[in-house]
Structures are given as C-alpha cells and as structure tokens.
Amino acid sequence: MPVLVASDLDRTLIYSSAALALTMPDARAPRLLCVEVHESRPLSYLTETAAQLLTDLADTAVFVPATTRTRKQYLRINLPGPAPTYAVCANGGHLLVDGVSDGDWHRRVLARLADECASLAEVQEHLLRTADPAWVRKHRVAEDLFAYLVVERELLPEEWVKELAAWAAGRGWAVSLQGRKLYAVPKPLTKSAAVREVARRTGADLVLGAGDSLLDADLLHAVDRGWRPGHGELADTGWTAPGIAALPERGVLAGERIVREFLRAARAPR
C-alpha cells in the first residue's frame, strides 16, 4: 500500500528570498536551488539538500503538492524529481491530474460552495468597502473561488483583521494572513478534501502532511502524521494537534527538515 505525502508549498517546502531566514554566518549558509522564476526573476528556493531528499521521496511515496496557489501560479514551480501525478491547487478547488484539472472534482467543489457558504461576490464587496487603500496594494480573486488582498503589513490594523474574521465566519468563510497576503477563503474549500480523494484513488494507507498557515490546519487534522515549521500562523498561535510535530527550525532549513521527516516516515517499517 503506498504512502501519500501531501505538503503545502510556500513557506513550508519552498521559500522566497524574504522568507529564507538565513540567520547563520554567510559562510555557513546552505546552498540554494531556485525552483520558481516569475517575470524573468528568481522567486522561490529550497536547499540543495532538500532538493535531493525530495527526489528520493518520489521513489518512496506519492508526493502531492497541496497549495492555495492558482493553477497558473503552481505550474510555474519546477520542483526537483519527477512531476507529481496529482496536485491540489486553489486550496482544494482544483485537483490536477498530470497537470490538468479534474472537471468532475471541480464541479463537486462548486456545488458544495453554493450550498454551504456566502457568495464570493458578497465577500468581494465587503473587502472593497472596508479595506483602506492606505494599506491595500492589490485586490485579487483566485480562480473565481476566493479573494485575497496584498497589503502593507506594517500598516494593516490588527483590529480590522479580527473584525473581518468574525464577519467572514458568520458567512462560512475563513481569514488567513500570510506575509503580505490576506486571504478570505470559503470554509468548505479545503486541501484535506482533495487529499482524501487522492488517497482514495491511490489506495494509500498512510498519509503524511505539512503546512505552516491556518489554511493548512484542516489538512494537518486529516493526516496520520504531520509537521509544522517554527514560523507561520500555526507556530505564532501555538497550534497543535494529535500526531503533529512542531519543529524548531524556521525558514528554508525548516523546509529541509520537513522533507527529511517525510522520507524517514515513508521508509519506516509498517
């Protein structure tokens, strides 16, 4: 029976320059591999050691990237090793099979959203009306499924975020602040549902996972064993759950540790 490894990407496995957290002396910094280029500029990295471990993992388990990124944003990432057969994009809104969205899965997601939460249009209108242009840089909609703002983090009022979260919760939506992006996502739109579908299709009897943000909490609740890095929303709030290890590492070295833990657990006798 195969092992399935479902992992968030940004600030879990791959890191922007701003998120690397290279606090060691320069001469001791790890060698990095660029895995994403956007508009002709390098954007995301992992360590070369993590790259080799991820390649080894592909020989041992079914590796499933599980990201809030849109399909277009995900497909510009060039991870080491063979291309994953399955990938979860748009926080579970799209299940990619060999790079192509599974139409049946997407229709099921849309039906559930229509039944269980307020519309995207209502949330968009609220964000446009209440968010102050003084600290909002961009309003964005992802895959016609959820919305996010690009903000000036140091100017963003904490009280406004709390009020937005309370307003959204009453309408079946969740709010997550990750770096300079503030997400509003329907609660029924989950990575865990898509990962469970992949586990069903592959017959996996052990599911491992990792993530750093509140949008990953449902995924971590659904796995048999999981890890979270020492940074991010989950670490900042002290979030824990049975079977989830809180790692001390922060930044790109946390990503390396997570892949090492994946490989160790996937290879362990069962």
Please characterize this protein's 3D structure.
The protein has 270 residues and is an alpha/beta fold. Helices cover 34% and strands 26% of the residues. It has helices at residues 48-58, 71-75, 103-116, 120-130, 158-169, 191-202, 217-222, 233-236, 252-267; strands at residues 3-7, 32-38, 41-47, 62-65, 86-89, 94-97, 100-101, 136-142, 146-151, 173-178, 181-186, 206-210, 225-228, 244-246. The strands form 4 sheets. A 5-stranded parallel beta sheet has the order 4-1-12-13-14, with helices on both faces. A 4-stranded antiparallel beta sheet has the order 8-9-11-10. The termini are close together. The mean pLDDT is 97.
Key traits:
alpha/beta, 9 helices, 270 residues, four-stranded antiparallel β-sheet, 14 strands, globular, five-stranded parallel β-sheet
Structural Rg: 18 Å
Question: Strand order across the biggest sheet?
Answer: 4-1-12-13-14
Instruction: Report the major sheet.
Output: 5 strands, parallel
Please report the total strand number as a whole number.
14
Please state the average pLDDT score: 97
| Number of H- or I-type helical stretches | 9
Helix percentage: 25-40%
Structural class assignment? alpha/beta
The H-and-E topology, N to C, reads as EEEHEHEEEHHEEHEEHEHEHEH
**Shape, per Cα inertia axes:** globular
Low-confidence stretches: none
What is the first-to-last residue Cα distance? 10 Å
Roughly what fraction of the amino acids lie in strands?
25-35%
